[in-house]
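Example 3.2
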Amino acid sequence: MAIDLLIIHPGNQAVTYQSLESTGFTSVSTPFWAPLLANYTRKKGYDTAILDTNIDGWDVSKISDFDPKMVAVMVYGHQPSASTQTMQAAKKIIKDIKETYDVLVVCGGQHPSALPEQTVRETEADYIIKGEAVYTLEGLLDTQKNNGDFSDVAGLYYEEDGNIVSTKPAQNVVDLDNTLDDYAWDLLPSFDNYRAHQHQCLQDFEKSTDSNFLDIRAPYAAFQGSLGCPYACHYCMINDIFGGSGIRYWSVDKLVSWIDRVVQQGVRNIRFDDELFVLHPKRVDKLCDILIERGYDLNMWVYARVTTIRQKLLAKMKKAGFNWVCLGIESGNVDVRDDVGKVKNKAEGDNLLINDVVQMIQDSGMWLQGNYIFGLPEDTIETMQQTLDMAKEQNCEFINFYSAMAYPGSPLYREAVEKGLKLPDTWDGYSQHSYECTPLPTRHISAAEVLQFRDNAFHDYCEDPSYLKLVNDKFGPKAQKHIEDMCKIKLKRKLLEDQSVVV
């Protein structure tokens, strides 16, 4: 029996992460938008299914298992910038379907919204969705059912007579609680198929009996309590899909209902993908009170900006099960931070105050993942060294070192296009860990120098005796060995094979 809609979550982790994937060092996250959209379309009376290719793999014959009237390939990542790196997989999926089946195929998500006209040209999709896709998907389904005119559906880009045309913009969802009220978790593979980042579970490594620690990393779920961000950092494209900066929230009661549901299915490891989870202390305080009352044994991870951390809240967050905070520190040089819109107040312009926040989090008993970016426009070798020095001084329990990328939809992308800067040859090149990875050059140094510095810095940090001692002291010898084993993996980089770089 044919279904109305098949939503495909594309992915190719083997390409995105190279040998980090085959050795089990990466996470596999539950998709965010696919189950939200699926729940919405089901509420509207449409028979909907989800295919998560990160779990189920991809073979075009899988379409026959569903016999859909419409396929929606939704390009999203576990973080906003991660959507572009999945476009190669999305293009192949769309091409395979259109060559094999007579079915309407649409493509939406973060990357297609940022570059709708280019996505029309590069893919064989019948329509590209710009924006959140909630009301656009509903409009497409209604129009198909009633044999209507798709040009009346808001939020579409498509080709007509050799020209790319667009319909009127689609509206964003205002009432999240009642419109996007639930996740269609039942349409996804079991939570047991998903796994947390290894570092989110470092504290439990000693209890594990599995070589990849899968017995403590799974089951796993990731979701959001808000959409958007009130800030406008130049390297980020999160706000592009929403049409500008701003933030909308699901209620605390709604978040609790979702947590209750996944806990009942055995999930302990949870990641909130909100850009600024702790932006409103009263909201977080209420959530913590409810979770503490529930008595759950949770291991949760949230993202935060330095100035959103409130000391009085940290102890309660820890008690509620928020073990990890991922903090956007970005650069050790204030001028570099300021140049990309990261300095909005005194704290963000003062390295000592940033260090104080780092120490405050660690003193609370929570663990910290520091995020740092090398290769921002004003970076030099010297300023990137300042960033590395800051990271080593802060000695976070884990770190992410990024190369600055011109992610489509971000101000850096628009600047790069205007200046004719070299961008990745393929969408895989936007992955931080891929062979094709091609960061931006800065105003002072080349892309190759940035990438080389980033890769060297990662090993410098993770192989530092003081860091390894911290890991051993806090998490035990299995955690230390895990970090040492991770450092044995050397990513292959096409950009660095093409030229000799000395940093």
